[in-house]
Please model this.
Amino acid sequence: MAILEIKHVEKRFKDVQALCDISLSFEKGIYGLIGANGAGKSTLFQILTTSMNPTNGEILYQNEPISKNAALYRSKIGYMPQNHKAYDHLSALQFLYYMASLKGIKKQAAKQEIQQLAQSVHLLDELPRKIGTYSGGMRQRLMFIQALLGNPEILLLDEPTAGLDPYERISMRNHIFRIAKDKTVIIATHVMQDIEFIANELILLKKGKILRQESGASLLEQLQGHVHEVIVDEQALETFQKQEKIARMVKTKEGIRVRYISKEKKEGYVNADLEDVYLHFMIE
Amino acid sequence: MIQLLYYECIKLIKRRSFWILLCGVILIDFGLFQVERTYNDEHNLKQTYYEETMAYIDTLSTEQAFQWLTDERTFYDSINAFKLSQFLEDDEITELTQTESERYETYKDEESYWEERKIVINDLYDYIYKIMNYQNYQTQIKQNKENIVQSPLWNLMSEQEQEDVQLQAEAYAHLQDTKLNPVHYRTIERYAHALSVRLLSFLFLCALIILIWKEDEGSIHDLINSTIHGHQKNALIKIICFFCVGIVSVLMIQCIDFIWYLQAYGGCDLLAPIQSIPILYESSQSLTIGTWLIKNMILFSILICLFSTVFIFLYHIFHNKILSFLLFFGFVFLEAVFYQNISESSIWLAWKHVNILQLFDPIWYGNFLSFQHLFTWRFSAQVSLSWICIMIALFSTICYVKFYDRRISIHMKRWVSLSCTNTYLWIQEGYRILLTNKGVFIILIVVLSTVLTWFHRLQTYASLQQNEQVVYEIYSQYAGEVTEDTKRNLKIKMESYANYEQLYQNTIASYKNKKITYDELQDAKTSYDMQMRDFPIYEKLYTEVEQGIPYILYDKGYQAIFSMKVIDRDVHQSVWIMAFVLFMCGAAAYHHQEEQLYQSTKLGNHVRLCFMFSHVWMICFLMALLVYALDYAHFAHLYPMDDFDVGLRTLFDLCHIPLPDMLQTWTIQQYLFALFGIRLLGVLSTCITVTFLFQVCKSRIIGFLISAFVLFLPMFLYYHELTFVSFFSLFDLFMGNLFLQNMFSVSKLLLLLLIDVGCLWMLFQKKRFLVFK
Model:
């Protein structure tokens, strides 16, 4: 039985169709919601966090529409917003206690939980500091802790690695992987490396429509035979670019090594990665 | 719930902006208080005399004080009679005793001393008289009630009316044994009449609402919404938090304000009954002054917070915050217009009495009995307005909590799309300054306050205008150059007044000789008063002509427009306009990062700057024109003016002000143009200077502080007698009259123009030789 189900959800803002007949179902595991900027990821998250109502369709939590018991549903979700820049004047500890009280957690229980979670993301010693003095990575970890408060069944993470350096990015990925064993985690991102190794399923969203909902391996399999690498000289590059969808270019002694995605399957292919998948499906 | 409330309050009070706002309000209040105090100290001798007299009365018992005041009154009456007899050159000059004569000789030449002191003594005499006769007043009320009960009218009254009479009598019965003592009532009366602290508290509450509700917008709004208590409960908690912090802060602001009054105007016995204060003498409340003040402050804080909940609802419900502001402040403005303009005889009078603006009047609370009074369901303005506030708060809170998840987006058609780059850059700059950076509110505040002040002045001076019309009609008969005919006509008129006088004196003599009856004397006096009604006007005219003035001019309007005898109006206007320029330039200033981005574009440097400056300067210019034009319109309405082509010398001679050499050949009209020209030059120079300062400072706050320092410090120093600062300051240009009369200097004007050109050049060069972070 699906824990969370999105059924024919549509959202329209005046003349813009932000989401168009979205139907998805989520069980335990990590889901990557992939889409370019403006694809509708944040709108879908706003609907999933009950900040916005869909124009059509409904969201089911354990087969019950969330509108029937919104309070119960809210007690089961944890949300990590993107680009959080508020409450700079509060200490991290005060902010977490505030979030705990909003989630209806008693102070004593909140204290224990905050300590455990802060310990796990190496933020315990920094909790008394004001949020305004935090670096981007520390802010993200703090927001991650608040999302986990109350041990929610469903975690909604909106670009959790945005603005982080490579080390912090890897570190955040590991934290997500560690806590995701018995939860439904939905990560909205357009950075493929974030979810490459941890997501059970990828959802490709383009202009408010679902293109694919499959595992990473399955998507990679579909691209087998489409990704190639050749060496071209600089004069020929321009003509080549017009003919093929270029994924990467590296300058070498022999010329420029170009990785491209062909429309047809061809011999002499190389192994595809998720960036190739993104290019193949999302870029026209 | 308590935990959530605690953290909501912590969120607010930990914010630096909250403390800046609170301290800002307290400082502005202190500034306004100081301005009022300075004005009173300089222009109100009564205050000093009052303090001196009260200090003396404190050393006496009530009876002794009353006796002393009676003697003083007699003394001032004798002085008056003596002066009058001297003036009229009577045959029998009123004699003064030796003591009286000695006192009179000491202050003989100080006319205002006698006038002001006499008023103070009369006021205090009436006050002590009332204090001593409070028991009689009570007995009279009791007697009145008994008379009503025993009269046949009683049976014709409805039960409700009978009950009202009983209740009123019962209310006063509590005061039967109250004994009043004189107190320093003026401190309390002054505090009660000060409106600024209440208006500032109201504005503080509006800003507080924005602070509380603005924080949880954007991504944090989604985060809070995703929690179990993030909807209705959180909404309710925010309102409770607003009430807690709002009430406490408003009480604090008012208490601090009251302490300043106590410090400045002297203490008052706060344990005395409120009836000791003349404005509350008739109150039926059994309260001490202290409790009354506390009750006042608490009631005001609660009611104004209750009313402000409308703003919470409007601020939350509309995505477009400008709409919320327009609706809320539009309503307050409408109420203010009704409050100011509905007369006591209007059929809309109820709208004035049950008006939100009444909340700002402390005297209004004087008849507010108690909270139980709210549930007696009897009509009174206080009860009705309190219930209106409660209903407004309940309705707004319910709507806000109920529709917390629904917000209204009204897409107002914009003038241009923000994606336009070249053609509409000018309009977009205006859009940015006025709407994005909220410049429109600064304009609204100035326009509203200027227009409201204008209406208020029109209303206040309505009766004076009629009197002035009479004076003007007399003047207009003789206006123009003084000819022999004019002199002769005036002499004839004065002789006829002398005849009236002689006739009246003969009538008095006839009465003394018992040739005519008292009634005939009274008739003669009435007729004499009628005949002599315009005598002071003719006498003034005649005296001026005798002194040799070449031209008869009805000079009051010109004097008023040029602020020739009082400069306070000029000071107020100047501060007001300089503050407007400061805020407007602040609204136009860019953030440093924003500016870096714009500078990298094709039109982002010179063209954009030109557009920005033209907007700000044009707006400042128009606002200054509005302020000056309304001021001019007011005086032109009050005092008719037809003689603009008359030489300026005539006007200056009439005002006994020496005319500077430069102005010897000028006409009044030329002076008027020069005055407004200088003032507008002051506005322009200030605009350039302040824009320049904002541009050279990276931080907007630093820019604001430095500009305020540059504009207001010279003014402050000048008023502390460091007059030389006027040679390198701008304020005397705003006060054009001061500049033209006392400080005109071509070199200063040239230097100023040079500085302006230099600032403009550097503005366009974008040289940041002074970069403050």
